[in-house]
Specification:
Elements: E1 2-6, E2 10-14, H1 20-23, E3 32-36, H2 38-54, H3 61-64, H4 74-81
């Protein structure tokens, strides 16, 4: 589930995953909505971001060394180069 706040005013909610696997050959139907409401945006920050940040830790390049590198589908690279994605 995607929930984000932009400029303290717009909150975006939806089912889209923000990873390239979800963008390539995605046969799922995703739904997102952008709401222009400062009160809702503040609520999302309190209920989602502030809770998530408390459970996070900063990662460095050393922490991710040895992780598997995935290559992107050439079609995705093409769309990225054309600024379609």
């Amino acid at each position: 589930m995607l929930e984000t706040v932009e400029h303290g005013r717009f909150s975006i909610h939806g089912s889209t995953n923000l990873n390239y696997c979800s963008l390539e050959d995605d046969n799922d139907f995703e739904l997102n909505i952008c709401v222009d409401d400062e009160g809702l945006a503040e609520q999302v920050v309190r209920q989602v971001r502030d809770v998530d940040i408390a459970c996070c830790h900063r990662s460095t390049q050393r922490d991710v060394r040895g992780w598997r590198v995935r290559t992107r589908d050439p079609r995705t690279l093409f769309l990225l180069s054309r600024r379609v994605l």
